[in-house]
Amino acid sequence: MTNELTGKEVETVRDIDYLKLLARQYPTISAATTEIINLQAILDLPKGTEHYISDVHGEFESFRHVLKNASGVIRNKINDLYGNTLRESEKKALATLIYYPAEKLDMLDINEREIDDWYRIHLFRLIEVCKRVSSKYTRSKVRKAFPKEFAYILDELLNENEDRINKYDYYNKIIETIIDLDRARAFIIAISNLIQRFAVDRLHIIGDIYDRGPGADIIMDMLKEYHSLDIQWGNHDMIWMGACAGSEALIANVVRITARYNHLELLEDRYGINLLPLATFAMENYGSGELSKFMPKGVEVTEKNQKELELIAKIHKAIFLIQMKVEAEIIYRHPEYGMSDRMLLDMIDYEKGTVKVDGVEYELNSTEFPTIDPKNPFILTEAEKDILERLKRSFMNSMRLNDHVQLLFSKGSMYKVFNGNLLLHGCMPMNDDGDFNEITIDGERYKGKAALDELDRLARQGYFNNDPVLKEQGLDAMWYLWCGPSSPLFGKRKMATFERYYIDDKAPHAEEKNPYYRDRERPDRIEMILEEFGLDKEHGHLVNGHVPVKVVKGESPIKADGKLLVIDGGFAKAYQKETGIAGYTLIYNSHGLNLVSHEPFESTQKAILEEKDIVSTVMVLESVRSRRRVADTDTGKELKSQVEDLLQLVNAYRKGYIKEIIQTAYENR
Ligand SMILES: O=P(O)(O)OC[C@H]1O[C@](O)(COP(=O)(O)O)[C@@H](O)[C@@H]1O
Ligand SMILES: [Mn+2]
């Protein structure tokens, strides 16, 4: 008891050692009270804007555009500011200047005499927009975001003192000087970037950055530079994380999908993965057979590219059969995964040319299996073993890939609870009667939140642990997350990859979805999930990606009375036919929650030239009468508890439990 504050008036009993530590940071009553006042001021500010994006699938140009226009946030600010005082075309041009300042300035077609005028008008406008978007933040936070070279003048321009005499002249003078010194271009670029940065306070990526599109690595580079973000892993991110950690099965999947979408240059040139041994092997073994099912998607075969596309198809086929073998090893090691029906190489009648899937016999569309011994179909040939070994080395040693995967681990997780909402890529696996699925992981049974937490831990173990047994446990769990029937990132009974390549009959191609997808229209089910994560079922939301919302077929992204929002509208070009749009995003600001739908993005060049915004409609899901404040957020909760601590500290000073620490001039020397 001697260590505790026990005075009658002290409401909460706190550990005095903790207060003494705090006293080092706030050594006097005055320092502590100043901080309390600062924190109270922050609590009163409007809540920062959250931006939710999902299933970007390597489409780096559309992603970059959506990041830049903040799903319409910047355009709205321009509208708020200039309502009827600017023409539509001027507002559009100003928005595009903010998104693509360098490119837009390069295209300026103005004569020498008028350019200074143009700069003046636009510098004024940009400063106004910047003031508007930064008004939600404390001065200190705003200052920290300034680029060094313009920090001083930005501070002057954005926080210009209302009482200054000749304020107008002072302000003008700064702008004139920027123009005279030939710094207008650099300043416009800097302030435009600043506006973009202030438009969004927090970015949430709900998974599937990787696969299908051309530039997941470029997206990762952008994310590395982003000021505040979290990532919920998608099944397509997990395969790259597992491949980098050394999972042979996931390496095979990554190479297969990258070949399928004709982006092998991503592996070879950008991640430095050597595909030569695999290409040589593929040419030797799959020289003459049927390749049509393995030709890359989305490219037309011409006389010029035919040879190259055929080589990619051979690589695609060779790695797929390697995948079937190494996946069988995992399934065999883990009977608890319940996936033995996926060991299909064993179910093939190699003479008859048929395969048994779920008890039904189907005809194969090709019987060419040059690398498979029908008696031992799962045994890798020596050449295949060698290829895997070399690929593994390449994947594990790729610096650029490790860099990106480390970001996925540090900013990412299986799910995220943020400001009262639950963010999760795929689903909460359930059984038919609506309870959470129980899964067995390494002998232990888990369900609900505990299952997700354990899978999260295991994925990290797969990458960070070098003990062979623990590493294998982790890597196998990562593979399960990719395609296991109770994986929250996958959520389907099976992944019918073999069936889609080798069986023409469409019946076995169907991938039956987890009961979650049937029940997710029911508010009570979503409420049960929110409660499982300690969230308020009345006000919380669940946000999913993963399954494209088929808007053309009348599907809505808003489910369970608005408690569930599905924002995979399909950035992936390959899926836009089905969805009819190019993706949904969410904006959660101090006024409420908005769902934004996007038109297909054609190209950056078009966005700049035609000043296209691609935000098509904004649906207001919820709007609040009184603005949400920082006090209502998770950060607010933390700040309030800091205020509590500081009040205790002030009390302890005032009651004489702790001495103020005042350094003498001598000590300060
Ligand atoms: O479109 P592709 O390349 O044929 O891939 C289809 C496969 O992708 C999946 O849909 C998984 O990817 P998603 O997470 O993007 O849905 C599998 O269920 C399916 O087998
Ligand atoms: Mn997915």
From TrEMBL:
It catalyses: beta-D-fructose 1,6-bisphosphate + H2O = beta-D-fructose 6-phosphate + phosphate. It is an enzyme of class 3 (hydrolase). Keywords: Carbohydrate metabolism, Hydrolase, Manganese. The keyword Cell inner membrane does not apply. Transmembrane segments: none annotated. GO terms for biological process: gluconeogenesis. Its EC number is 3.1.3.11. One of its GO terms (molecular function) is fructose 1,6-bisphosphate 1-phosphatase activity. Pathway: Carbohydrate biosynthesis; gluconeogenesis. Its cofactor is Mn(2+). It comes from the Bacteria. InterPro entries: FBPtase_class3 (IPR009164), Metallo-depent_PP-like (IPR029052). Belongs to the FBPase class 3 family. This is Fructose-1,6-bisphosphatase class 3. The gene is fbp.
